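From the pipeline queue, job 12 of 40. The input is one protein chain; the requested action is below.

Action: predict structure.
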Amino acid sequence: MKQAKLSLISAATLLALSSTAVAGDTEFKFGGYVKADVMFSDYSNGAPDSGNLSRQFYVPGTIYGTPGNGEQVVDFQARESRFNFKTSTDVGGHKLSGFIELDFMTHADGNERVSNSYSPRIRHAFVSFDNWTVGQTWSTFQNPGALPENLDFVGAAEGTPFVRQTQVRYTNGGFQFAIENPETTLTPNGGGSRMTSGSGMVPDFVARYNFKTEGGAKFTVAGLARQLNIENASYDSQTMGYGVSFTGVIPVGNDDIKLSATAGDGMGRYMALNYANAGVLDANGDIKTISSYGGFASYRHWWNDKWRSSFTLSGFKADNDVALTGGSVNEESYSGYINLLYSPVKPMTVGVEYMYAENTKQNGDKGELNRVMFSVKYVL
């Protein structure tokens, strides 16, 4: 009994002293980072109230402003800080691993009056066994490795698929196939508040192929097929939606170019943080899909081994049927970023970034955001 207690104490001590530990055939890793941000923001139509999602990071559709509020605000936060825990075990020649990660973003709970306390939220929680992955992680339709190195939480938000959700994924070489959690977002006939429907029995299907060139460039091609569904006391309608996406990471000497292009019909929440819905209901209550497309390009230049900058342009457009959606729906969004990052030592980065974003509704209403952001990040 004493020996068992000593073994547990030794394992706990090892975990406390190192981010990586081994117990038997299982390897444990603790990771994450601490990140502090200071954001000076100028909203063209008045800043959203404190705690609003737009005050945490750039989300297309949240910058139209609050009339009557001041236009210039400053926000200090450490909410992007995150921690994760991973295990990896060799079980009879099979690789078994688990991963869980949490951060503190997006919540409206807590406040900035005294303690700045915010609840943790789940980002990833999955288990992998050989070629199979089951649990919540990045959608197979998204390639997070192609995201630009920006200080903003997402960076190029309107130009990329960005979804984490529970799924079952099979990987074989460069091919990936997944069934993922379905969720339909719709615009009511004539416009109005977003309708969200979780009805239906058909999961979203994603297929993806990853490949490399001899020059070191990495590319992905992904396809999405999904059923849009609403079934309640007022409506009973289904239709199909689809999307295709291409991403690339291209080395240029010590520098690199990252890019993405995505288009589809009924993609909805998969693109631009759900800036546009997947469909709209017509006068008969039937779903009519909304087409959309977007993309980004980012060039990262290394000034030397410690200093670097990224220059990013991002855009999105939805093809709304105004006769059905009305004029108050989101139509197009774009943003641009330029930053300067410095890593005095490898785990630590300090930087400054300027971003400009403009969102436009179908009726021509606009919102603009200018933001200067300072960040300090330490990778655990």
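Job complete. The CA atoms of residues 102 and 121 lie 5 Å apart.
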